[in-house]
Amino acid sequence: MCIEGLPMHQARDYGINHIQARKDHKCYGMGLGVMILDEVYPGFPGDVRNASAFPFPVQYEIIRDVDMPKLIYAENKSACLDSIQRAAQNLEQMGCRAIAAECGFFAYFQREIATSVNVPVFLSSLLQVPMAQQVVGPHKVIGIMGHAESGQYTEHLLKSVGITPDSNYVICCSRDIDGSCEEFEHLWTPGKKADPPGADFEKTEKEFLAFAIEAYRKYPNMGAMVLECTGMQPFARALQRKLDIPLFSWGTLLDYAYSVAVHREYYGHV
Predict the structure, then answer these.
(1) How far is CA 193 from CA 70, 188, 198, in A?
(2) Of the four, 64, 94, 95, 177, which is 20 to 30 A from 23 by CA?
(3) pTM for this prediction
(4) pLDDT tops 90 at residue 4
(5) Mind listing the pLDDT tens digit for each residue in 202-229?
(6) pLDDT tens per residue across span 90-128
(7) CATH number for the domain whose boundaries are 28-124+254-261
(8) How is domain 126-249 classified at the architecture level of CATH?
(9) Where are the domains of the chain?
C-alpha cells in the first residue's frame, strides 16, 4: 500500500507532534534488528540475511564466534549464549523495535534473549508452529521443513518455542534424504560449500520443490508447512503455487514481528 507515492513503511506518522528519547536507544526510525551467524555465504532475496526484499528497515548484527556447527551441532550450546545476548542488546541500544535471528535453531535461546532485552524477540520461525496447529485443527499435521538432520530437532529445541512434543506435527528434513537439496550444501556445509560459497537459483528451487512436494505426499493429512530454514523462504511462493496450502516462513514471522512493534495506520473511507 502506498500513501502519496511512498511505501507504507516510509510514510510519515502524522501522529508525531513531539518526540522523546526511548530508554537507551541511540537511533530512531529503526525497524527489525536481525542477528546473523559469523559465517560468510550469500542469500537469495527472501533469505533473512538479504535485506533487499523486506519492506521495512533491517539492521544486522553479527554474533561473533557463533557459527552453524556451534549453534546446530554442538552438544553443549551454552557457550553461544553470551555472544547472542550481546548482539541482541547491541541491536536494542541501536534502536531496533524488535529482534529476530536468521536460523531456526536460535529457538534454543528464545526465552533467555526475551528476558535480556526490553523489545519483542522472534528468534525462530518455529515460533509459528503452535499457531499453525491451532489454525489447521487437531486432525491435521504441520510439516516442519528443515535442512538439518531430523535428530537435531530435540525436545529441548521444540519446547523452547512452545511446541508440545509429539503433538500434531511431522519433521521433514532434506538431509535425511541422500542427494536432496544439494545446492544448499554448497552454501553452508563445511567440506561441501563452494569457495566462495554460491548456489544456482533455478537448481536450488527445483531441488527444494521436489523435496517439499514429496514430504507433502508422504503425509496426506498435512494441513500447513512451517519453513524452519531461512534458505527455503525464497521459494515459498513457488511451493505454494504447487500445493496451495498455508505456508509459514521467516517472511511471515518477520512481517508479523514488524507489525507488532510498529503498527500500521489505516486509511480508507466510510
Answers:
(1) 17, 6, 8
(2) 64
(3) 0.90
(4) no
(5) 999 999 999 999 999 999 999 999 999 9
(6) 999 999 999 999 999 999 999 999 999 999 999 999 999
(7) 3.40.50.1860
(8) 3-Layer(aba) Sandwich (3.40)
(9) 28-124+254-261, 126-249
C-alpha cell at 122: 522472534
Dig out the grid coordinates for 48 from the structure.
533473512
Taking the CA atoms of 163, 166, 167 and 171 in sequence, report the sign of the dihedral they define: positive
Residue 250 identity: W
One-letter-per-residue 3-state SS of 144-156: EEECCCHHHCCHH
Q: Please give the Cα distance from 143 to 180 (Å, whole number).
A: 17
Residues 187/208, Cβ–Cβ less than 8 Å: no
* The pairing of beta strand 6-7 with beta strand 2-3: antiparallel
Upstream peptide bond of 138 is cis (omega within 30 degrees of 0): no
Would you state the pLDDT for residue 107? 96
Same fold, 28-124+254-261 and 126-249: yes
Mean pLDDT computed over 141-152: 92
Model confidence pLDDT, tens digit, residues 169-187: 999 998 777 667 888 888 8
